[in-house]
Design a protein that fits this description.
66% helix, elongated, mainly alpha, single chain, 83 residues
Length: 83
């Protein structure tokens, strides 16, 4: 896959940009570098969560489910249920 770049523009609260710039300076990085890192982390996290949801749906379709009551019972046995 070719590594091509595109320029985007967006609005953000001035304080956030100031904080971003301070972080960039402290890390000796550019603002663009940190924004790209944030976008990569966002994409990775949401792709991971999406995969988990799809896996859960597939498990549900296969009948591999545990009722809410059973989960609560198991948590109580393990001493991890909220009181």
């Amino acid at each position: 896959m070719r590594n091509t770049e595109k320029t985007i523009s967006f609005r953000a609260v001035a304080e956030k940009i100031d904080t971003l710039d301070a972080l960039a300076a402290a890390q000796d990085r550019s603002r663009s570098y940190l924004i790209n890192e944030a976008i990569t982390n966002y994409i990775d996290l949401h792709a991971y969560q999406d995969a988990l949801v799809h896996k859960g749906i597939e498990e549900m379709r296969k009948g591999r489910v545990v009722s809410h009551e059973e989960v609560v019972k198991r948590l109580k046995r393990a001493g991890r249920a909220r009181q």
